[in-house]
């Protein structure tokens, strides 16, 4: 197996040499770090995100169009999904890996006072759009050639969490969707998920900003997650080492769900 060396001097296997990945919601944070990990391991990536300027910066950060392209749009827009999948295949000739990372959380508070429109939006992005991405990728490439799908869920989909009940319910639905797709798309397409706890990104900042040390002390490993923690797990689930794993959700939580 070929390997490359990171800036820190450690050797990383190029497990995705010659393959193409599409990573949704990848202009920053966890999505960008997942894309970076896949590029380091040899993949060409298509990134999606809502902001064209931020997306262009992400593509540049990954080495430009030799390694990455960006397609701006909303994940809950069917035309955007179709355009992004087509662009990935047109640019790089294949689509072996789909990473459903795009998500939204517009609500904070109890379910009983949740705005119905915001609840629908949360499920449109976090659940229905994921199914749409899988359907589109299946039609365009995965159905004929096989591949791997990894969905980014959350530990809030495993147990109740104060203030983010709608988000948690959508992430629980995503875990169930992952299991169902794994059964329906086997044996040529594997579908798995990851469920991170609090990861230090702008998306999750409200959960730890100004009190990071106190929050970290509630974790057995005494720290919050960073995007690279999730990226490594996603790469594993998309790589040959996990070829006998499907329909599973890998919890990445510093041990917090044990407490």
UniProtKB/TrEMBL annotation:
Under the heading SMART domains, the entry gives: PKS_KR (SM00822)
What Gene Ontology molecular-function terms does this entry list? oxidoreductase activity
Alphabetical keyword list: Oxidoreductase
Q: Which SUPFAM superfamilies match?
A: NAD(P)-binding Rossmann-fold domains (SSF51735)
Question: What residues does the Ketoreductase domain cover?
Answer: 19-197
The UniProt entry, under NCBIfam families, shows: PRK07231.1
Membership in a protein family: Belongs to the short-chain dehydrogenases/reductases (SDR) family.
Protein name per the record: Ketoreductase domain-containing protein
């Amino acid at each position: 197996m070929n390997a490359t060396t990171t800036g820190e001097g450690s050797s990383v296997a190029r497990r995705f040499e010659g393959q193409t990945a599409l990573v949704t919601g990848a202009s920053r944070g966890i999505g960008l770090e997942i894309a970076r990990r896949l590029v380091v391991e040899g993949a060409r990536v298509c990134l999606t995100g809502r902001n064209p300027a931020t997306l262009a910066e992400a593509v540049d950060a990954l080495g430009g169009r030799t390694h990455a392209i960006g397609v701006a749009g909303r994940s809950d827009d069917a035309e955007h999904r179709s355009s992004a999948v087509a662009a990935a295949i047109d640019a790089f000739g294949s689509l072996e890996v789909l990473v459903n990372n795009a998500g939204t959380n517009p609500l904070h508070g109890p379910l009983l006072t949740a705005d119905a429109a915001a609840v629908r939006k949360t499920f449109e992005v976090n659940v229905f759009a994921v199914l749409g991405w899988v359907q589109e990728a299946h039609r365009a490439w995965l159905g004929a050639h096989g591949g791997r799908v990894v969905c980014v869920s959350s530990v809030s989909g495993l147990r109740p969490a104060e203030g983010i009940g709608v988000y948690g319910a959508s992430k629980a639905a995503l875990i169930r969707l992952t299991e169902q797709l794994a059964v329906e798309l086997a044996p040529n397409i594997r579908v798995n998920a990851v469920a991170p706890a609090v990861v230090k990104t702008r998306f999750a900042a409200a959960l730890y900003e100004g009190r990071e040390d106190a929050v970290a002390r509630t974790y057995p490993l005494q720290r919050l997650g960073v995007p690279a923690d999730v990226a490594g797990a996603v790469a594993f689930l998309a790589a040959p080492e996990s070829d006998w794993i499907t329909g599973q959700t890998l919890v990445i939580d510093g041990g917090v769900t044990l407490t």
